[in-house]
């Protein structure tokens, strides 16, 4: 099976290339090639900017009358993508660059020309130094002076390195730490003296520090229950503190009539205790029995005031009114 691309051809052993006639081709024939723009350029016809590395279909030809050290120089023809004007440039093997011949202007051409001019001036200066002996002597003097300065700087660096080589870094760190501790102690003493001077405390006086029980003001403290005297007090409700009650208006006595006997009540309400001030039923007939109605309020007030306090008339009148309401 034959090759699809036919890269190689068969030449028989008795092949003679002289028998093949030469093809009639022009000596400087142009070829169609695909290339990219070598640099940023601007079209002189329409002003269109052509970026570097933009692809074009170009025509290539050899420059017959130019070469550089035996190297061929090629010329390329491309067309502007906007106005289809022809742009021509060629290779520059001397500067490893390209030269635009017609149809466009290269961007940053001024910078390139300035660099080349500076290079030419440097070459001319070197040639002048070689031809002028006095100029050469001056340059040698400057160069020797520069070398001496560099040698002095190197010696200084060597001395500095030798001094640093004998330095003990551990001792330096320890010394620095001791200085820091001494400085901290001095600052603490100054702070304490300032506090004493502000608060007027003496050297012997001790400062009492109050410890905060809690950081929050809203914290509710637990109530301490009162001590119990009997085991049964745990089951009983908590007693409220007794507050002495004030006497009512009708219980406040302004005094009694001197030597007058209190009449006995005609009606004795049910459930009331009656106290007699006589000898009882067996007493003398001349002395009338005096009875007193003891109510709940009067009994409490009587016990608070004392067992020997007498019941006033206003108290009896209040007791009588209470019996009617019942």
UniProtKB/TrEMBL annotation:
Keywords in alphabetical order: Metal-binding, mRNA processing, mRNA splicing, Nucleus, Spliceosome, Zinc
Main location: nucleus
Residues reported to bind Zn(2+): 43, 46, 80, 83
One Pfam family per UniProt: Saf4_Yju2
Comp. bias intervals (Basic and acidic residues): 178-188, 201-213, 239-251
GO molecular function: metal ion binding
Name of protein: Splicing factor YJU2
Role noted for this protein: Part of the spliceosome which catalyzes two sequential transesterification reactions, first the excision of the non-coding intron from pre-mRNA and then the ligation of the coding exons to form the mature mRNA. Plays a role in stabilizing the structure of the spliceosome catalytic core and docking of the branch helix into the active site, producing 5'-exon and lariat intron-3'-intermediates.
Family: Belongs to the CWC16 family. YJU2 subfamily.
Organism expressing this protein natively: Amphibalanus amphitrite
Chain spans, region Disordered: 115-145, 176-256
InterPro entries xref list: Saf4/Yju2 (IPR007590), Yju2 (IPR043701)
Localization, UniProt: Nucleus
Subunit structure comment from the entry: Component of the spliceosome. Present in the activated B complex, the catalytically activated B* complex which catalyzes the branching, the catalytic step 1 C complex catalyzing the exon ligation, and the postcatalytic P complex containing the ligated exons (mRNA) and the excised lariat intron.
GO biological process: one example: generation of catalytic spliceosome for first transesterification step
Gene Ontology CC, one term: U2-type catalytic step 1 spliceosome
């Amino acid at each position: 099976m034959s090759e699809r691309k036919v890269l190689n051809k068969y030449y028989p052993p008795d092949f003679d290339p002289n028998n093949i006639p030469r093809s009639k081709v022009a000596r400087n024939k142009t070829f169609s090639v695909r290339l990219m723009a070598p640099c940023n350029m601007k079209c002189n016809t329409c002003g269109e900017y052509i970026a570097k590395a933009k692809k074009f279909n170009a025509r290539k030809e050899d420059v017959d009358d130019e070469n550089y050290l035996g190297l061929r120089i090629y010329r390329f023809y491309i067309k502007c993508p906007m106005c289809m004007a022809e742009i021509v440039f060629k290779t520059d093997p001397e500067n490893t660059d390209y030269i635009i011949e017609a149809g466009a202007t290269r961007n940053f051409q001024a910078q390139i020309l300035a660099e080349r001019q500076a290079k030419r001036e440097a070459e001319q200066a070197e040639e002048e130094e070689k031809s002028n002996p006095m100029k050469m002597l001056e340059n040698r003097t400057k160069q020797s002076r520069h070398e001496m300065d560099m040698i002095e700087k190197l010696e200084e660096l060597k001395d500095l390195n030798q001094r640093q080589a004998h330095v003990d870094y551990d001792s330096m760190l320890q010394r620095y730490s001791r200085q820091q501790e001494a400085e901290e102690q001095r600052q603490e003493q100054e702070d304490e003296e300032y506090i004493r001077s502000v608060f007027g405390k003496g050297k012997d006086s001790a400062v009492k520090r109050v410890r905060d029980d809690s950081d929050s003001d809203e914290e509710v403290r637990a109530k301490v229950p009162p001590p119990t005297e009997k085991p049964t007090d745990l089951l009983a409700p908590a007693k409220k503190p007794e507050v002495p009650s004030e006497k009512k208006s009708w219980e406040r006595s302004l005094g009694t009539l001197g030597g007058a006997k209190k009449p006995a009540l005609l009606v004795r309400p049910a459930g009331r205790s009656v106290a007699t001030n006589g000898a009882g039923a067996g007493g003398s007939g001349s002395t009338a029995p005096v009875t007193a109605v003891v109510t709940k309020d009067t009994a409490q007030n009587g016990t608070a005031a004392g067992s020997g306090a007498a019941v006033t008339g206003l108290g009896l009148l209040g007791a009588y009114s209470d019996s009617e309401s019942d």
